[in-house]
Amino acid sequence: MAEDTTVSKLDFKYWLDKATEWGQATTLESQKDVCHHLPQLQEFLQQIYETLKHMNSVVAIQQFPLIGQLLGRLCWNPFVIGYDESQKILMWCLCCLYSSQPQNPVELKANSWIQSLLCHLLSSSKWESNEAETNTFISALGYTSADYYSHVVKNMVSSLVTELKGNQFNGLNVQGRVSDSRLSEISLLCVPLITLPDLTPLLEALLLCHGSASQEVLSSEFLEAVNEAFLKKKISLTEAAVFSLWLRHLPSLEKATFDLLDQLVSTHMTSLEEVACVIKDSLLPQAAIHPAIFIIIDEIFKNILLETDGAPEVMTILQVFTQLFVQAHQNENKQHKFPLKAYFSHCHQPLVVALLGRPSATHCSQHLKYISEMLKTLVEGESIRSFADLFEIWFLVAHFGEWLDVAAEQLLKAPADPDALLWLLAFYYSPQNENQQRTQTMVEAREIYSQLMMLFSCTALSVRDLQDVVHKAEIKQSGAQHLTTHLLINFLLFSSGGHMIAQEYISHVTGTREASQEVRGLLLRTAHRVRPSAEGNPRAAALANDLLQKLASRA
């Protein structure tokens, strides 16, 4: 028969009256009365907890408006907190009242009050039955009460961390001295106190601690609260602790990834260095060295690109993320680590190796031709049986989109085989096209390219000249339109005449948000690739940065 955990208003009023009558049990009569009622009180508190744990803090306060008065009074009664499991149950009840995301000043104040009560309970010891004697003892040590409790909390944290080390052994999952139920209990009690600086060592110890069961032993409330505090920069954790959090709690990893994407998409950053700094600070590229984390983040990028039809801002973020991930992997000092190509194990491995390659400037055009020919063989071969197969190849190329920017720049240097580079761009911008459609895209791409090359050496150009080029090409394929934009932006940045009309032309073609985002992404990547500190074109970098500032001022 199930235990009845219903809390009646009559019972609640009875115990609130008792708690008020007892106070801090300073008289002999009140002490005797408290001791007489302790078993029944503990049973009542257990019923309170069983009811509260199924509610959020708002509903709990609505159902029990005076719950704060009751718990607050009991927490300061030394006989109550010294009896059996009452102290622990009081902590559990307080945790249920804690607002993980306070919405107003009242909830913030309530959280602060709960934190102070929990600190008091955690630092209370059972011999403190006489407050006057305790205060005399504290004064003799040279502490104020606040200092004393702070030291006790630090000692408690230190003691628990030492206890938890029995469950850590070189990062492996082994059974230690701490039971799974105790790990769960400790993690739950930490929830309202997560932002206390003194508690950080305990948080990290818990995150690095593994139970004996195959299922997660730490409470989900704890894992979510730690992740939320970390993402809002309310706490600082070691990389190992953060990686362990994301490995053991998928919702936290997903939230961290979506929060990063939201931040980057909603902020108009004017350099790729800013984008890279934000991504690197998130620790996600470093965490992705763990294949399980990489797979989840990669899947999120894939789904977003499908939902947004390859949004330019998401493409840029994916490319920067991949670059930082590759750097983190190269900086990893572990003796046994996965080779980079293993993270793309479902892809054509020779293509993965080629995209990961970094040839010298003199061999760049030849390497691009090699990538293009390999892609063409794959795309037009019999191994592609569905759109999903085609998308996987395109998604792999999208990770290393810098090659497309290099291809567009190489085309302006009149390579021996421009068709190979044009095909690479045509595939990137219209992967879903059938061979016949891609052939038409190539016809339009060749036309626009030849027209631009005839103007490349002209020093005196007008916006009308470029408009005439686009008009003559009669571009109909959407992929060819994006390819044309890519070629035009590079033409403006790298040709002598293009510098003079760049600002006017870009103002002309960025009338919509989609067009503005596309141009902005191209300028960001170009400015980064040819920046003065690299072997590039300082003049083109300066122009790209200037155009980015103009776009930002219009946003």
Low-confidence stretches: 1-5, 125-131, 169-176
Through-space gap between termini:
65 Å
What is the helix/strand order? HHHHHHHHHHHHHHHHHHHHHHHHHHHHH
Helix content: 55-70%
* Number of helices, where a helix is a run of at least 4 consecutive DSSP H or I residues: 29
The total number of structural domains is 4
Reported for the largest beta sheet, the result is: none
Radius of gyration: 32 Å
The overall pLDDT average reads 84
What does the overall shape look like?
elongated
Structural class: mainly alpha
Q: How much strand content do the residues show?
A: under 5%
Give the total of beta strands.
Answer: 0
Protein name: FANCC protein
InterPro entries: FANCC (IPR000686)
Pfam families: Fanconi_C
Structural overview:
- Helices cover 69% and strands 0% of the residues.
- By secondary structure, it is mainly α.
- It starts with 8 loop residues before the first helix and ends with a helix.
- It comes from Nothoprocta ornata.
- This is FANCC protein.
Structure in a nutshell:
The protein has 555 residues and is an all-alpha fold. The chain is built from 29 helices and no strands. The protein folds into 4 domains: 12-97, no CATH class; 157-162 and 180-247, no CATH class; 249-345; 370-553, no CATH class.
